[in-house]
Amino acid sequence: MRLRLLPKSLIGQLVFAVAVTLFVAQAINFALLVRGQNQQQLAHGGGMAVARIIDAVERERRGGREARGDAGEGRERVQRLRISGAPPSVPPHAVPRPDLARYVEGLMADAEVQADSVEAWALPPRNLRRRADFPGQTVVVVAKVGAQFFAVRSRIPAGGNRLQGFLLWQTLSLYLLLLIPILVIAWRAAAPLRDLTRAARANPAQRDAEPLAEAGPSDVRELIGAFNAYRARIAAMLADKDRMLGAVGHDLRTPLASLRVRVEQVDDALLRDKMIASIEEMTAMLADILALARSGAGTDARERVALGMLVTDLVADYREQGRDVIVESTVDAAVTVRPLLLRRALRNLVDNALAYGVRARLSVGAAEGWARVTVSDDGPGLTDEQIRTLVEPFARGEESRNRATGGAGLGLSIAREIAEGEGGSLTLANRASGGLDAVIALPST
Fold it and tell me: Hey, what long-range contacts does 404-412 have (CB within 8 A, 24 or more apart)?
């Protein structure tokens, strides 16, 4: 499963990776520092305890009474070393410190003083005589050597809060010193990439697009330069296609017109009518093919158009012809398009609605920066497979090849190409109550 918390953008992922890496590094650093601090604390408190115990053991070996007498006098003076033949009593609520006991035992072994057992406790705060000049924790270490128990009281210095504060400021400083330059570099690389993404999503048939400025790191500049060259090649090929189609259209229309004149001289009326119908069908199909090939690449200037007025005028034309076409609702929405091309796309949708869905109902809506013209019909709707395929050239919902019943299968393709050429889209969707909605969405201005 993909991590949902991982940012999607280049800047986000880069900052996230650096932040996680710094966090892990600081966590390792914290663990090592805490371990070193603990070793230092044990060395401070345990070393003093071991020194006193070894000194007392040596004195005990040299002369027992003298050592115990000295220890008694020391108890009145410092109250830190006690020697007895029985285990000393442990204050209530004392906390065992096995780490300190192991450390003391190891130091005694290094000094060749073999202890039968070593135990250590940390005294609770209420048993301490607090010293403002030496904050820390008071501990008691008891070592059994032979038949004697040596009890030593010592102090372990504090320092955990100071270490945590130091690491906190260190982490914040590292984040500021590293993340700010990374953010600047990532933003410098991501801004041209965002412009490149918008340009790549645009319709390549828009010949008037300006080349992108080559900005950012060298890799990004080379990518933008390659994209500009690629788009220029596409524009050149589309221009060649338009010239070729113009020539083909002119060369085909001329013999078709000449053929129509000659057919008028045929005496057989039935045969003449069939031949004229075939010629008209070829002429209409040629016009549709040329319209599909040139859609999105018209030479008309773009204008700011009120969609409500355009749809109302279009419906009025159909109403004058006695067609069942109405306007259901409109809103104030304006788009910058080529009006003739947009009217052609809407006419294709209305003609399809009348051919397959009895009547057509048009509405205009706007939301989130987009204006939408919806053409609804009362037909049987389409299957999901038909919705995917009918926008392709020469795809028809009616299986016969008769132009009178099904057309050439180019109406929806032309409408889609025109919508995309104007920076929008065409979508088909079945209504729950029955019928089909064909929606042209365009950026509102």
Answer: 407/355, 408/284, 408/285, 408/288, 408/289, 410/288, 410/289, 410/291, 410/292, 411/288, 411/348, 411/349, 411/351, 411/352, 412/348, 412/349, 412/352, 412/438
Q: What type of residue is 128?
A: L
Beta bridge partners of 153: 140
Strands 81-84 and 370-376: unpaired
Task: For residue 63, give the H/E element and its range.
Answer: none
Q: Report d(CA 54, CA 41) in Å as an integer.
A: 20
Distances 48 to 40, 96, 156, 197 between C-alpha atoms, Å? 12, 18, 10, 70
Q: Quote the tokens at residue 45.
A: 């408190």
Q: For residue 61, what are the contacts with CB-CB under 8 A and spacing of at least 6?
A: none
From 58-67, 84-93, 239-248, 298-307, the region with the lowest mean pLDDT: 58-67
| Tens-digit pLDDT profile for residues 40-50 | 777 777 777 88
The SS3 call for residue 279 is helix
What are the E-state strand segments in 61-130? 81-84, 95-96, 117-122
pLDDT in tens, 98-149: 888 888 888 888 887 888 888 888 887 654 454 444 456 788 888 888 888 8
Q: Residue 126: what pLDDT?
A: 56
